[in-house]
Amino acid sequence: MQPQSPRHPIRKRRVAAFASVTMLTLAVSTSAGAGHLTASVTGSGAGPARLSFSPALTPCMISGSPAVQMSEGVPTRGAYAPSTGTVHALTLMVDFSDAPGEGDALDRFHEFFPQTQEWFRTASYGRLDYRPAVPIRDWLRMPRPFEEYGVERGAPFEPGYRQLVQDIAKAAGPKVDFRDYDLVNVLMTPNAGPSALDTVLSVTFAANTGAPVVNGVTLANVSFIYSRQDDGSGSYESTGYRVLPHENGHVFGLPDLYTQEGGVAVGHWDIMSEDWGANNDLLGWHKWKLGWLDADQVSCAAKPGSTEYTLTPLAHAGGPKLVFVPLDRHSGYALELRTLGGNDEAVCQPGILIYKVDAEVDTGQGPITVHDARPNSDGCTRSPNVQTELSDAPFAPGQTFKDPKARIRIDVTSADLKGNYRVRVTRQ
Ligand SMILES: [Zn+2]
């Protein structure tokens, strides 16, 4: 099957306090999205996320039409990498004759590891056992100069990336059996291409069933990481790795949450929205989608009347994490409790985060929108590179969210001494 043409790339812009920084990471899903519940995956891959669900959750299993390339719908459809259990990530450090790797290739590897595997362990409550593998510990030299691949921002898979994947497979071939891996990370030498301060080239080709086949395995899920996204703030050492969990989020089927306006839709509440600045977690919706929540940790508020729910902090394992209030078969409101802890390093206003999820909206177009409990407040954070306005978006006890058109009301009723919150969902 021929892959679809990747969509026009999205450019994300953001002005930091100290420097003007333009960043771009993009997802190009070339999955045909034919509507199969599970994809047939070759090699060691076990298919995309194993969603936990029960009959009571059926009204909350929203889905998008096949035309949506990368949808927030559940379960995830397409030939994405598995996001639970032990996941083997072939990681290659690649250089070129016109951009030779500087220093030890393993230093490049250690810009991202072990931080990335720890990030996934924490975010998944231990359900994603991420194993980076470096069977080639030196720079893997490509047969053509970097210039020849025509890599630029938003470059499609054809023809440059196809050539690059073929050349990587050929160069690595004698030492790598691609059947051993679920996804591929290509860590480019940082001097290939422009500085990330000018153009962020990092890109993932996910569920790309038309990709080259090596050792009988389709290389459908490959993340390419380019120049360091170092903004000069001195924070790169601790936060620079986070482009990789973002890009790997795509190989697990997660769409981009930033839009052409930057992080204004979701702020710093998900690494698919902002992958710079202080560490941040994934939304509870994404954790369910990735198979990291059990069915009994998710509640579906589909019935008329008033129902109360308890939510425990998303940062801690165990307990109820997500309430979803479906609007129709494609969208609804998600509720979760966000606090300082786990991967969330910059939460300045704990509380119930309320956001709309729309499975009909594609990656980069704003599939998720956070509702701000304190609009036009300018937020509460002083953490650099964190979207400010939505930093105080969570609802506190006593606050209410209303959607009069849908006749939905959400009251945050109380918080207890253990730090758990109670919410009441009323549907008329
Ligand atoms: Zn992205």
UniProtKB/TrEMBL annotation:
Residues 378-390 have a biased composition (Polar residues). GO terms for molecular function: metallopeptidase activity. Keywords: Hydrolase, Metalloprotease, Protease, Signal. Residues 1-34 form the signal peptide. Residues 372-398 are annotated as: Disordered. It comes from the Bacteria. InterPro entries: Peptidase_M6-like_domain. PANTHER family: PEPTIDASE M6-LIKE DOMAIN-CONTAINING PROTEIN, SECRETED PROTEIN-RELATED. This is M6 family metalloprotease domain-containing protein. It comes from Streptomyces thermoalcalitolerans.
